[in-house]
Amino acid sequence: MKIKYYPDADTLDIRVRDEKPDYGEEAGDEMILHYTREGKLVKIEILDASKTIIDLLESILSQKPIVKTVSY
């Protein structure tokens, strides 16, 4: 996996495979998923990355931790 940030475009590319993508599909307003012809995920492109990643982290960090108790 390779991750690269492009500050001029505020885009984060997460490369899952070294294959060349054949097409992309929008996944919401901030993400484009790139696939091979066979449907294998190659790259995740996050648009407006600085805002999108912070929003994602804030939502994760605001969650209550799961406390699991085990009885014997």
Total DSSP helices: 1
User: How would a textbook summarize the main sheet?
Assistant: 5 strands, antiparallel
As a whole number of angstroms, the C-alpha radius of gyration is: 16 Å
- Helix and strand sequence: EEEEEH
- Give the amount of beta strand, in percent: 25-35%
Note down, in words, how this protein is organized:
The protein is α+β, with helices and mostly antiparallel strands and 72 residues long. It has one helix and five strands; from the N terminus they run E-E-E-E-E-H. The chain has one helix at 49-61, and strands spanning 2-6, 11-15, 23-26, 31-35, 41-46. It has a five-stranded antiparallel sheet with strand order 1-2-5-4-3. It is extended, with a radius of gyration of 16 Å. The model has no long low-confidence stretch (mean pLDDT 89).
Topology summary:
Layout: E1 2-6, E2 11-15, E3 23-26, E4 31-35, E5 41-46, H1 49-61
Antiparallel strand pairs: 1-2, 2-5, 3-4, 4-5
Features:
five-stranded antiparallel beta sheet; 18% helix; 35% strand
Kindly summarize this structure in a few lines:
Helix content is 18%, strand content 35%.
